[in-house]
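Protocol check, entry for the methods section draft. Step 1: assemble the input record (protein sequence plus ligand SMILES). Step 2: submit for complex structure prediction. Step 3: store the structure tokens unaltered in the notebook. Ligand used here: adenosine-5'-triphosphate. Step 1 record:
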Amino acid sequence: MGPITLAFLLAALAWALVAAAHVRQKYPAWFWYLTGYPITALRVVRTWRKVAVLNDLAVSPRPARGLIGDLIVKGEALRLVAPRISFPKATRTGLSLIVRLHPGQTPTPFIQAADALAHAWRVHAVRVTSPERGLVHLLATAGDPLQKPGLASARVPLLSALLGICESGGAWVMNLRTVPHWLIVGATQSGKSTLLARIVTQLAPQPVALVGIDCKGGMELGLFDVRLSALATSRKEAVAVLDALVARMKLRMKACRDHGVRSIWDLPEKLRPVPIVTLVDELAELYLSDGTREGKAEAERCSVLLLRIAQLGAALGLHLVVAGQRMGSDLGPGVTALRAQLSGRICHRVNDPGTAEMTLGDLNKDAVAVAQSITPDEKGVAVCTGPDGGWDRARSHLTTVEEAHKAAIAHAHLTPELLDVHKALYDLGVKRDAGQ
Ligand SMILES: Nc1ncnc2c1ncn2[C@@H]1O[C@H](COP(=O)(O)OP(=O)(O)OP(=O)(O)O)[C@@H](O)[C@H]1O
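Step 3, stored output:
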């Protein structure tokens, strides 16, 4: 090979490498389709049998025990048959395939083998679901799409907030019409306040009343004061606000009864009251007692009122979004009952396994393990429940305090007046100037 040919080949190689880097950066999905996907798909097909056998996903068509004369002989089958798989289909962020279960198999061992599959196929994660009896769906994500998440786009209806992006590639949406109450947990610096800011930013332009309960002296939710119809900054104020909201809930119940409907959404439009979303920052502050009789009574009252709203509020347009660092039964018996009503769950990185278990354990054990693996660097990453009862790993869109504050100011004129709630606060000596 002459020097000119060699130089030409080296230049072509360099050009190809630069072009590949450009495609990878600019069009990551196409880069995946053209390079990563074919290699990974072949790896899946080539290694499937071995991986299935090693992870007890393959079964023998012959029984593990047989009869020799008068004896029953037990043994391990020599020829195991892996369940059949479809050819892996490319997705924007990875690949997916369907496994046809052998008779007698369940999805459980596949869920347990998800980590092993991810290692064998050299992908970031494998999620296992069962869309239909006898079938298991394996969704592999090539890299962590939450490392550098783009901004997902989705049309969000009333009472919905576009929070960020899911690991599976879709938009992460909190829809209060379908899931009326939410619990958000996370250790300090995990991204809770950013998520609350995102929720306020998204709900601010909508015809919705936002009520804040922030017993950290209003340091977090106070930033959005102009778009809040009421803000309680201590437990005493929280009791007054929640009391007024429960009284309002009873009036709405009566209105529904009078019109023979079961929800405010069935009332004639001009009679329909504004939905109220109550945002609670630092739930534990509402439950912890300082040992005094008054403190205990306040904590119990808060617990009862929150529970009432959570139990009855959905159809009456009263919604709860409750955030806290910790969630444990030690906060009081009311907390477990409240958790049962907060069906939407978002678990950021947490300090104690108990909180992850309390937040997600009653829904899905695997989700608990994934939540526990969130590292301190993964700010804004959380495990969240989906509308179909499933779960996903997701990352919130980074909303700065300035952005949220600006959104609150821009939509301050949409803040509905809740006079009864104002009065309850006023009676405690709390003054709030409109547009403050
Ligand atoms: N989705 C995100 N993407 C990138 N960075 C984020 C994201 N969410 C939060 N952060 C960053 O993480 C840091 C902590 O966020 P945040 O204040 O929301 O945490 P927190 O859980 O409310 O903490 P604390 O309880 O101490 O108030 C901030 O610097 C924020 O910019």
